[in-house]
Amino acid sequence: MKDLLSSPTRRQLLAMIGKTAGATAMYQAMTALGFASESSFKQEIELKGAPAGASIVILGAGLGGLTAAYELRKAGYKVTVLEYQNRGGGRSWTLNSGDKYTELGGEEVTCDFKKGNYFNGGPWRLPVHHYAVFHYCKKFNVALQPFIQTNDRAYLHRTNHFNGAPQRLGEVQSDIRGYVSELLSKAVNKGRLDDTVTQEDKEKLLEGLKGWGVLDNNYRYVKSAETSKHRGYSVYPGGGLMPTAKPSTPIPMGKLLNSGMWADLYANYTVYVHQPAMFQPVGGMGKIGDAFTRVCRDMITFNAKVTKIHQDESGVTVDYVDTANAKSSNSNSSNSNSSNSNSSNSEGSAKSIRADWCICTIPLSVLTQIDINVSEPMKQAMAAVPYDSSFKVGLEFKRRFWEEDEWIYGGITYTDLPITQISYPSQDLFTSGSGVLLGAYGFGEASYKFNSLTPKERINAALEYGKRIHPQYTKEFRSGTSVAWHRIPWSLGCYGLWSESSREQYYDTLCAIDHRIVLAGEHCSHIPAWQEGAILSGLDAAKRLHQIAKKLG
């Protein structure tokens, strides 16, 4: 298993991307891994005065499509949304107890969690500066709660360091801060900064470093009662005749440097997009998609597999198949929260719809395989955007051992194992009974290998690697599920990948109105892979289409 799934670290992956594909590609990867980006949303748009009788067909009931549908209907358009699945929300998707879906290759993925437990197969956290998401959550009454991104009790883990034992994040942070302060104080005392700061500044800097780094009177970072107030104790203070508190021993600086854990600190904890506060919907990220669907339900036709998109001078005709009446036995659970993944050769009732305009949010990985008569530049732009790969594994355990045994309440552990990270639930803290961990989540090389495994093998791999950090896995495991995004029929990948050159060459064309068709979705945004990008793209497409529709009457 180790040879099968070994992969570069996130930092190594970003470095390779930056060297080979340029700064924009690395920024794109940073965004997908959770390192960027802020929203440009300021206020709700007000579209008014749709031409009399004007109609729009929207392809895809993800957040981008439903945002456009909601706003255009308010403007007076007759709006119809065609959705391939039997639910709305797109990648805003939560797997609940009893859900199941069929991935490419015919394997059925089930979610056998206890009732009330869930797993976010797609997005799982909301940065505080993704303003459009919060706007619609408030508007549609989606209850939100804090998402704990950083928890000093969580771990940093390196397979070949510290005998494979995970280290507490808070201890590593305190030790690094102490050693940096010690080194800088030495530079100040030896006059290395004489050309930079005055004598008075040096004295102030030394005093500040002493307090910030918890240094002793000789400006050394060493084991002491004071350092333990920051990094924690080996024996914690008690009461009565309990054992006397004992200070903990800092990790030697050389071992910290060699472990490479510094990279986890600046890559995962100090970036703007991960700064507190972060949030999540109560009950799972799919609640956002559910709310959009509820508000737009009368406009949506579910189980509609688009087979052809044809535009002419007066409108757009979309052919689709009603897969709910398909003769093929390869269908999904009737559970309303399951994804619809009928095979491409399923037979169903052929239908068509005619509208004046079309907003298409179908992922480009799928759209490029559909018969659509757009301009040649648009076809080239559509083909220029590949989709990144990603995987997630959700693991349900009989008890919340990470809380009961290790004092971990929310937060994320990062590791150089192929599972990349383990995220602890921020909801239902201090409750008894079962709980669900995000047991694996990664991109790049590791995801290609995880995607090649069967659903059961993915769960087994996550358990095998995860027990190196939490030995309780073996005894406490109850059930698991997974999402391998390149094997999801309705997306064929996680999100649209742009390089610096492809964005410069194709982005404006991809987002432009092509006669009577305009594209939208996270792939048509500068915040790809985030729900915010999809919503902003839907708003922008609706606004521009409305402007040209009014102009043409």
Question: How is the topology of this model organized?
Answer:
Blueprint: H1 2-5, H2 10-21, H3 23-32, E1 55-59, H4 63-75, E2 78-82, E3 94-96, E4 100-102, E5 108-110, E6 118-120, E7 126-127, H5 131-139, E8 144-147, E9 155-157, E10 167-168, H6 169-189, H7 199-212, H8 225-231, E11 233-235, E12 246-247, H9 253-259, H10 261-268, E13 278-281, H11 286-296, E14 300-301, E15 304-311, E16 316-322, E17 349-355, E18 357-360, H12 364-367, E19 371-372, H13 376-383, E20 390-397, H14 401-404, E21 412-415, E22 421-423, E23 435-443, H15 444-451, H16 455-466, H17 473-476, E24 477-484, H18 500-511, E25 517-519, H19 531-552
Parallel strand pairs: 1-2, 1-18, 2-14, 9-21, 15-19, 18-25
Antiparallel strand pairs: 3-6, 4-5, 7-13, 8-13, 9-10, 11-12, 15-16, 16-17, 20-23, 20-24, 21-22
Helix pairs in contact: 2-3, 4-11, 4-19, 6-7, 13-18
Describe the structure.
With 553 residues, the protein is an alpha/beta fold. 34% of the residues lie in helices and 19% in strands. It has 19 helices and 25 strands. Strands 14-2-1-18-25 form a five-stranded parallel β-sheet, with helices on one face. Helix 6 (169-189) runs antiparallel to helix 7 (199-212). It starts with a helix and ends with a helix. Mean pLDDT is 89; it is low at 7-36 and 328-346.
